[in-house]
Specification:
Chain lengths: 596, 127
């Protein structure tokens, strides 16, 4: 009597699938079916080549007509249990045809886009920066029209104050308040200035706004000019941003031709002339009084405040200086109202912030997120996590003026107050992400080299203090650190912060202070144990293979450019100190941290 | 050029919207090449040249080409966005000239998005 089976498994026994182990899967299935007492219910049939060798071993289960792919013998018990006992197909092995599986995801399915809200970057990807009509088609210059025809300067200031917009250059001063201070000062000539001197290593927010949407900056400046009654203004851009300069220049010309700048804007009787001033790229010129000195044709050096620029700024006239991103935020506030703007963000930090993500991340780029979003979301969801499966160590926010935020504070909400609490600053929006291969004292040294180089030299604490900080950091990373150096760094840092003339010196010790605060053990390892835990500081690396940690893979041997490594299959590697040039290629290639 | 008034602004907004909107402009497809500094550094000009060349060869009048700034994902540049009438815009990443030719042939001319090079479809959240 022929047995009737409830189910048939057709296992491919073509050459491809056999090579992939289909016969072993068949054996495993037979054993498992007997174990479950299903041998009389389920029949195993070997078939010829199924044609889908790439996904082998493959099998088809009848009567359901279910196609399983890449099944291994060890998967069989699970498969039998799920499919033949519980009656549900095992998702993991199901084959989905490419046409069905490969649909293009939509924006909110991709974390990079899902968490972003574009306000300052509202025209990103949508307009041609060199065509003013495209900007106008996206409500461009409608806010300026509203401000010039329907609003008094007081109303503009009131709306801006109510919106809670804070300066996006980094310090976070209330924009509306800044305008009010200047509006109250009487003076025939006032200036509206735009700070496009973006100089932090790892920051490119302002450049991108100027390149992609120059008219949004011009429109913001028109509105601000009306609020403070200024009729002349400058956009200060560094000459290293040629495309930004080109597109801004084009934008100014187009706006002038159409009566959106110059005399009698939009027939309202309001005049504003704007001009680009190209800076030579000195970091200190991002400081407002130094920027003004630079426009005046003087050496870019800061002045003590007061008098504040709102009272005596450019050429001793009342002036308002705002950052590029701040101006780009203004038109939608005027158009949609302060409440709309304040609907996003936290209690004291309203709206959105643009960040430039760089460093050891999978997604490098420019993102705009609501204030208060956890740092974790920015780094792991939007940024796609750390590259090469390495561990996240810290993120430097605010460039050389900012500080690092360690992995332990990854849940910090990103707004002015919470970031300040960590010892870092919001800054203009640079986020440099570091993985475990970064040495924190060496990182602090890098930023000190930058600030020491960029210090204008006017005041002693910044000129001499930063140089001394750098000297101490150099000796620590050279393996010549002394007992008490950490205290010396802390003490000196505080003095530089307290006594420097401008923001450059007042913030330059921040990278030192925060790295000591969060990674003091690394400083101690450098000074006391003469060891660099991240294997970055060459004088502290011994170039010895740890015989226990070595997995004998030979990667160091294969990559050593001078043949200094001895290795044989199955043997741990050995570095010949005579031949070694300390280039660290072996360390970079070792996946097991076995070289110290 | 005549100075604009506020009424003119509104008019430009309407008329330009019309020409930007594919249907009224007589275009079936709009190609946007992202040409910020990051895009240009990654080779966006070469991509633009390929598109111009392919469009010349295809001799089609229903395809509009334009540029725009950084699309935000600088590490995946060069990028381009293709908008076909009635379909959400599709963003392509990490392009080469060969990929661009394939995208032009399959998506722009034949209307079938090339899923393997596409990152995402749809509009970003503004406001």
């Amino acid at each position: 009597m022929e047995t009737t089976y409830r189910s048939n498994i057709m296992i491919c026994a073509g050459t491809g699938c056999v090579a992939n182990g289909s016969l072993k899967v068949k054996d495993a299935l037979e054993t498992e079916l007997i174990k479950r007492n299903l041998q009389n219910e389920v029949k195993i049939v070997l078939t010829g080549c199924n044609g889908f060798c790439a996904k082998g071993p493959v099998m088809v289960v009848y009567p359901e007509d279910i196609f399983y792919q890449m099944v291994k013998p060890e998967d069989v018990p699970h498969l039998v249990e799920e499919h033949f006992i519980k009656g549900r197909p095992v998702q993991k092995f199901l084959y989905t045809p490419p046409t069905e599986k490969k649909t293009i995801p939509v924006m909110n399915e991709i974390p990079f886009f899902k968490h972003q809200v574009l306000r300052a970057l509202r025209n990103r990807s949508l307009i041609d920066a060199e065509k003013i009509e495209e900007y106008i088609a996206r409500d461009g210059y409608m806010a300026a029209a509203k401000a010039l025809t329907e609003m008094t300067p007081e109303q503009i200031v009131a709306e801006m104050k109510k919106s809670g917009l804070r300066g996006r250059g980094g310090a976070g001063f209330l924009t509306g308040l800044k305008w009010e201070l200047c509006a109250r000062v009487t003076g025939e000539i006032k200036y509206i200035l735009c700070n496009g001197d973006e100089g932090d290593p790892g920051a490119f927010m302002d450049r991108s706004v100027m390149e992609a949407d120059p008219h949004s900056v011009l429109e913001g400046m028109i509105i601000a000019a009306k609020a403070i009654s200024a009729h002349y203004g400058y956009i200060y851009v560094r000459a290293e941003y040629p495309l930004a300069v080109h597109r801004l220049q084009l934008a100014i010309e187009q706006a002038k031709e159409r009566g959106l700048l110059g005399k009698d804007i939009l027939g309202t009787g309001f005049d504003l002339d704007l001009e680009i001033y190209q800076g030579a790229g000195a970091f200190v010129c991002g400081e407002e009084t130094a920027l003004m000195a630079s426009i005046e044709g003087k050496r870019g050096m800061p002045k003590p405040k007061p008098p504040f620029p709102a009272v005596k700024g450019l050429w001793m006239r009342p002036s308002v200086l705002n950052n590029v991103e701040t101006f780009a935020n203004v038109p939608p506030i005027i158009l949609n109202g302060a409440d709309w703007f304040a609907s996003l963000g936290t209690e004291k930090s309203k709206g959105t912030k643009v960040f430039a993500l760089s460093g050891a991340l999978n997604n490098i780029g420019l993102v705009e997120v609501p204030m208060g979003i956890p740092l974790k979301t920015i780094i792991f969801d939007i940024g796609g996590g750390v590259k090469n499966n390495r561990k996240f160590k810290a993120v430097q926010m605010g460039g050389p003026s900012g500080g690092c935020i360690p992995h332990t504070l990854i849940d910090t909400p990103v707004d002015y107050e919470n970031i300040n609490k960590t010892g870092a600053i919001m800054g203009s929006g640079g986020m440099v992400v570091m993985d475990e291969t970064t040495c924190m004292p060496a990182m602090a040294k890098f930023f000190l080299e930058f600030t020491e180089d960029e210090s204008c030299g006017k005041c002693v604490p910044c000129r001499v203090g930063n140089k001394t900080l750098l000297t101490i950091l150099q000796r620590i990373t050279n393996g010549e650190g002394r007992e008490g150096d950490i205290e010396l760094l802390l003490n000196l840092s505080q003095q530089i912060k307290d006594t420097s003339l401008c923001g450059l010196g007042q913030t330059s010790p921040n990278p030192v202070l925060t790295t000591i605060k969060y990674f003091r053990d690394e400083y101690e390892a450098h000074i006391k144990e003469k060891r660099c835990p991240a294997r970055v500081c060459t004088p502290l690396v011994k170039f010895v293979v740890d015989q226990e940690k070595c997995k004998k893979c030979g990667l160091c041997f294969k990559n050593c450019p001078v043949g200094a490594i001895k290795w044989e299959k199955g043997q741990p590697a050995y570095i010949d100190q005579e031949k070694c040039t300390k280039c660290k290629t072996c360390i970079k290639n070792c996946r097991f941290w076995a070289i110290d | 050029m005549a100075k604009l008034t506020i009424a003119d602004l509104k008019k430009i907004k309407e008329t330009y919207h019309a020409s930007q909107a594919l249907r009224e402009g007589g275009f079936r497809v709009k190609i946007t090449v992202h040409m910020g500094t990051c895009g240009i550094a990654a080779g966006a000009r070469g991509i633009m040249n390929v598109i111009m060349e392919e469009l010349g060869k295809a001799n089609r009048k229903d395809v509009a080409i334009t540029t725009s700034g950084c699309a935000g994902l600088c590490s995946k540049e060069p990028m381009l966005t293709i908008e076909t009438m009635g379909e959400p815009p599709v963003k392509y990443i990490a392009l080469t000239e060969d990929k661009t030719r394939k995208i032009f042939a399959e998506h722009v001319l034949a209307g079938k998005p090339v899923t393997e090079f596409a990152l995402v479809a749809g509009h970003e959240t503004t406001y």
